[in-house]
Specification:
With 389 residues, the chain is an alpha/beta fold. Helix content is 47%, strand content 10%. Strands 1-8-5-4-2-3 form a six-stranded parallel beta sheet. A two-stranded antiparallel ribbon has the order 6-7. The chain starts with 10 loop residues before the first strand and ends with a helix.
Length: 389
């Protein structure tokens, strides 16, 4: 293991009554107006926003609503939210929705405490030194943004997805009520489960030695998520399944399981580069890229794939276990009904587009490479994209 630092927030409220106790928690975060940030329609249609308004009113808490977050949160909306917070002297944010809403809330929270353009904080041109406190109420299990210090915002003007992180962005409170996810259809449920699985795999594929404790934690979570995926078609309305998914997805983004190990994150970097050009859901996209990444790198560093195959996919150990593990994972994804190729997501990449995206990824770091498990050059990224298309 290597040295590391781990944070314990947020304070988690879990269970079917969690959403009924959030008001007690958020009133401790400030005494000014609350920004209730949400998506486009689902929370309203489900009656959740009406219930939250009633509770805010009952507690005599002033609030302002700010909706319109899309599946890939946009820089323009973040800037609008920052201005709103500054003008109305908002001192807390309630983020109601999926990971996109919570990510957008994080960017707004940081921008509201900064005199310049929020883009400078996102690109690292200026440090994030503070942020408004956030109470996150996810209505989708998957991204785990409710407990992470990271966010991803799309800048359409530059066809970029910008990922950034700071401990100041980590929500103070996470309200995890599995009943809020019962209305999700099968596709959205699977997308969240595989998104969380990719978060785990980014941590799992590591060259750091003596990490068996965190290996076992990650493997347990992967087994849970894969079992849940298999059960989705018959148990969409099952609270027990929703609770397992919500807790596993939250844990998949916790710092604890990644402590002491060097992580990879190349698949996410590639997915963000593609997502800046194509407006597609992140969960299916990163899963497709992860499969392409596995096929490209498994022969170059097979031992970890052998362990993954043996412990997670219950494969026998033999000379072909590494490749068999990749095949088995792809079959699990396909059997669930999730896409395994970019073309199935409506993404067409010709050779020129592949070169452009590969070079963009390589420029992320001064070394001209991305990832840690296997250092990937632009040519490697191009090979992954060619395999994934």
């Amino acid at each position: 293991m290597i040295d590391g630092i781990c944070a314990s927030p947020p304070r988690v409220l879990f269970g079917p009554d969690a959403a009924r106790h959030w008001i007690d928690e958020i009133t401790r975060l400030g005494d000014g107006p609350v920004l209730m940030h949400h998506g486009r329609a689902s929370a309203e249609a489900a009656g959740l926003l009406a219930r939250l308004r009633a509770e805010l009113r009952a507690y005599d808490v002033e609030w302002v609503e700010f909706g319109g977050v899309s599946a890939n949160p946009q820089l323009a909306l973040v800037r609008e939210g920052v201005s709103l917070c500054r003008d109305l002297r908002v001192d807390r944010i309630l983020a109601v929705g999926g990971g996109s809403v919570i990510d957008s809330a994080k960017a707004i929270a940081a921008g509201a405490c900064f005199d310049g353009d929020v883009l400078a904080l996102m690109t690292g041109a200026a440090p994030i030194v503070g942020a408004l406190p956030i109470c996150a109420m996810p209505t989708v299990a998957g991204a785990g943004s409710e407990s992470s210090p990271a966010a991803v915002i799309t800048d359409p003007a530059r066809s970029l997805k910008i990922d950034f992180a700071s401990e100041h962005l980590r929500p103070r409170i996470a309200v995890l009520d599995p009943t809020l996810t019962l209305g999700l259809d099968g596709a959205a449920t699977l997308a969240g489960a595989f998104d969380a699985s990719c978060h785990l795999l980014e941590r799992y594929f590591s060259n750091t030695e003596h990490t068996d404790c965190s290996d076992r934690l990650i493997e347990a979570l992967l087994l849970t998520l894969l079992d849940c995926v298999q059960a989705v078609p018959e148990r969409l309305g099952d609270y027990a399944l929703r609770a397992e998914l919500m807790w596993a997805c939250k844990l998949a983004q916790d710092d604890f399981i990644g402590l002491g190990r060097k992580q990879d994150w190349a698949s996410h970097a590639i997915a963000h580069a593609i997502g800046g050009r194509f407006d597609v859901a992140h969960g299916p996209l990163v899963t497709v890229v992860m499969i392409g990444w596995m096929k490209t790198v498994c022969a170059r560093n097979p031992l970890r794939f052998v362990q993954f195959g043996r412990r997670v996919l219950d494969l026998p150990i033999g000379p072909d276990t590494a490749a068999a593990a990749v095949d088995a994972f792809e079959r699990r994804v396909a059997a669930s009904g999730m896409p395994t190729r970019l073309s199935a997501l409506g993404i067409t990449l010709d050779d020129e587009a592949i070169d452009r995206i590969a070079n963009l990824c390589a420029r992320r770091n001064p070394s001209g490479t991305i990832g840690n498990f296997v250092r990937l050059t632009a040519d490697d990224v191009g090979a992954i994209l060619a395999t994934a298309r």
